[in-house]
Input
Amino acid sequence: MDHPTPPPAACDVLVVGAGPAGSACALWLARAGMKVLLADQHAFPRDKVCGDGLIPDTHAALRRLGVYEEVAALAQHVPHVRCIGPRGGFVDVPGTLSVLPRKTLDHVLVRAAQRAGAWLLAPLRFEAPLLDGERVVGARLRNGHGSHEITARWVVLATGAVPQPLIAAGLCERRTPSGVALRGYVHHPELVGRITQLQIVWHPRLRGGYGWIFPAPGGLFNIGTGLTGSHIVQRSGKGRMQDVNLRRMLDDFCDIHPPARELMTGGELQGEIKGAPLRCTLRGARWSRPGMLVTGEAAGSTYAFSGEGIGKAMETGLLAAEALLAQRQSPQGHSDETVRERYEATLRALQPRFDLYETASRVNQQPWLADLVVWRARRSPRILKRLSGVLEETQSPGRLFSWRGMTKLIFE
Output
């Protein structure tokens, strides 16, 4: 929706970052009648480095936002996640799954926020918060024409994994990423119908991470590698993303996984192979300060185990919106501090699940564990059902991937 008049210089809520978290937050607030400005440093539609896999929590958030049908009509339906161990054995884990490039998904969400009444301001890059004492009362944004100051009752920072906006806002606790990923798009129509599942591969040559191939619409495939946790520092020394040789890791992936090799040698690469940092496990940033909430991957909403973060980004964006709406609906009973406490309490309630997924990420560090899980799941419908429950978030991953859980896998 294009507004016929210039956007206001003041609003109830300024949401900075129009990815899944920011757009979900802006949509929810605007739908409730609040004056919302949604700013992003890029004009839409724009690309975003991601695996593009939409897993069950993403579908649940899309349904809640009222855009599920629109996304489903554009996405590639996928019946399984194929988990492939170092020895080549695999197990297909069923789930509610699809694939849609983030360029398309994010544009759908932005348009939905605009239809709800939010103003989109792009391209505008966050420079610094505007302050009244210690309280944030807006933000200074910049584009090629200069700086723009926008005042707001609240600012929601949804700027993703890069540390610079968090540093400028005084909320960054860790500048190095907790994960990094590299992905490319390859067009290979001959593989349509042959690669029909989300393929995730663990192997000693990918130690510390994994490789993936996800089938997207139109004969397109998303191929990439990800690296999580301590291996970033071990491989790079300083933990800077540019020091991690993910391109070599992608070459190793193609060497050890024949479908990846066939895709890259026989297909046509679309655009550049791009890398991006990840922020995982709800760590690395403070979640709020007076007048400002941090949400999405800026708050660390990505799972360390799989690198998946779209669904949880939207979920945290909705939690931020709900905390702000609670103040609006009962202003006498909800001070600024109450808003922050309410929001941070909801994130703390999610923290145990993120911690369990971090426990599960030991598979990335010890790839032989994938062989064990695959071997047992192929022989036990109960264990396969448990894996599906992890995917659907009805089962705890910590129960399966803890050392106790691994012992049970061997002996039960």
User: Anything to note?
Assistant: Residues 160 and 298 are 5 Å apart (CA to CA).
